[in-house]
Amino acid sequence: KSVKQEQEKEREEDCSLLPLVHDIIKSIDKDGPDIHQELSKLRTRIQEAREQVSTSMPGIDTGPAEQRQQLAALRDQVRTKNQLLQKYKSLCMFQVPKAS
């Protein structure tokens, strides 16, 4: 396995809430005093997951309207750059080798 795959697996395990939920259900069934501790662990894990999402996903804090504006601006930039490329190609300043 690559390092990236191992990191991805660790991240998935870090964000997995199912084992904690299972422990909470078991505590409820047993009517044990551990439920508060398990709920605290769950809250902590949820908060850690929120922090990971907010730091690892740029743009998550922007709304749909702002994202559409950014997308339109980026598309305009691509269009302009493509036009410039076509213009420079038509000037024959560069010798483009033909594929054989």
What does this structure look like?
The protein has 100 residues and is mainly alpha-helical. Helix content is 75%, strand content 0%. The chain has four helices and no strands. The chain has helices at residues 3-15, 18-30, 35-56, 64-90. Helix 2 packs antiparallel against helix 3 (35-56). The radius of gyration is 26 Å and the shape is elongated. The two termini are 40 Å apart.
Low-confidence stretches: none
Question: Helical segment tally?
Answer: 4
Major β-sheet, in short? none
One letter per element, helices H and strands E, the order comes to HHHH
Instruction: Return the structural class.
Output: mainly alpha
**CA distance, first residue to last residue:** 40 Å
Helix content: over 70%
Percent of sequence in beta strands: under 5%
The tally of beta strands, per DSSP, is: 0
Please give the radius of gyration in angstroms: 26 Å
Mean pLDDT: 78
* Envelope shape: elongated
Element layout with pairings:
Layout: H1 3-15, H2 18-30, H3 35-56, H4 64-90
Short summary:
This protein is mainly alpha-helical and 100 residues long. It has helices at residues 3-15, 18-30, 35-56, 64-90. It is built from four helices and no strands.
Attribute tags:
mainly alpha; 4 helices; 0% strand; 75% helix; 100 residues
